[in-house]
Amino acid sequence: MLLALASFGASAATPPAIEGTVDRILIEKAARRMTLYTGDRRVRTYVISLGGGGLAAKARRGDRRTPEGDYRITGRNPNSRFHLSLRIGYPTPAQVAAARAKGIDPGGDIMIHGLPNGRGALAALYQGRDWTDGCIAVTDPEIEEVWKLVRDGARVRITP
């Protein structure tokens, strides 16, 4: 599996420092698992929550599904309405073109993020449930760790 992987592309007010050693993220939707890699070395694995629209790939804005494909981390938001967020570069130009050909809006704003601000103490109520609008969610302490470890531009593969 690692051979296939090699080819793919604090608080919100005071975000943790960025160490940036992780260059790849594998998100396995069916397993509800996100694994961080530096090269071929597994760094951390997390249990995740996904979009509440089911396991099918994101098709359009508002379907509450998590996309599938190869992306990059394209930005960070320390002032997100969720406890820290890392932007995933969805949709790709090819996904935009495919959606336009169908006359639909592919959506956007797909993030890896923590819990809604002020709800960190309720993590047990969120874990094991798919509740996002298409994003990938972890607990607040976990997103702080992810924020520190993942470098900007890291590759992200989201699989079914």
Automatic annotation (TrEMBL):
It comes from the Bacteria. Pathway: Cell wall biogenesis; peptidoglycan biosynthesis. The keyword Transferase applies. GO terms for biological process: cell wall organization; peptidoglycan biosynthetic process; regulation of cell shape. Gene3D superfamilies: L,D-transpeptidase catalytic domain-like. Pfam families: YkuD. The active site is at residues 113, 135. Coiled coil: none annotated. GO terms for molecular function: carboxypeptidase activity; transferase activity. Residues 23-159 form the L,D-TPase catalytic domain. Keywords: Cell shape, Cell wall biogenesis/degradation, Peptidoglycan synthesis, Transferase. The keyword Transferase applies. Belongs to the YkuD family. PANTHER family: L,D-TRANSPEPTIDASE YAFK-RELATED, LD-TRANSPEPTIDASE. This is L,D-TPase catalytic domain-containing protein.
